[in-house]
Amino acid sequence: MPAIDRAYGRLLEVFAVAACALILGMTLMICADVLLRNVRVVPGVAGLAWANEISEAMLFLVTLLTAPWLLRRGQHIRVDIVLRAVPARLGWSLEWAADLLGLACCALIAYYGVRAALASYLAGSVSIKTLVTPEWWLLSALPLAFLALSVEMLFRMHRLYTGERAPRDDAVSTG
Fold it and tell me: In this predicted model, what pLDDT tens digit does every residue of 107-139 receive, in sequence order?
């Protein structure tokens, strides 16, 4: 199990690097758009009409790519004041309850995300803005991300089970 856990952690790091590449690409694209709108470098080109639309999609993908990685690192939003105030064993039990709820939510969103992407694909739905793209392209990223979050929740639960019978020490708000 530890080898699978490490391999999965490396996969999530690849997702995070891909998100960084998207941010770099988005930054360069926005700079090019602003430059082309304000300086006539290329005759007849006054900006990149599709830049805002592509930026929106990139932000969506960056969020989905980094969410499982941040969860693994314990850098997600976490309110732990109650966990630090109650006895360690009760805090551990509350961690279990939160992980079970998180797993259920992630699995449910993944399931409905698959249904939405599949329905969009079968209907041939397209997004018509500056660019015309199949709607399912972006919709398909959601169930993949939430599947990855579900898997990470299972690894978190395994680490909680094999660890100390106390709340996790990652992402604590108190010293």
Answer: 999 999 999 999 999 999 999 999 999 999 999
Bridge-partner residues for 127, per DSSP?
A: 133
Contact 120, 174 (CB under 8 A): no
DSSP string, 15-68: HHHHHHHHHHHHHHHHHHHHHHHHS-SSTT--S-TTHHHHHHHHHHHHHHHHHH
The angle formed by the CA atoms of residues 94, 99 and 103, to the nearest 5 degrees, is 150
- For residue 68, give every residue at least 6 positions away whose Cβ sits within 8 Å of its Cβ, in sequence order, or none: 12, 15, 145, 148, 149, 151, 152
Dihedral, CA of residue 9, residue 12, residue 17 and residue 22, to nearest 10: -170
Q: How far apart are CA 28 and CA 113, in angstroms?
A: 31
Contact 146/110 with Cβ under 8 angstroms?
Answer: yes
* Predicted model pTM: 0.88
Give me the residues paired with residue 134 across strands.
Answer: 126
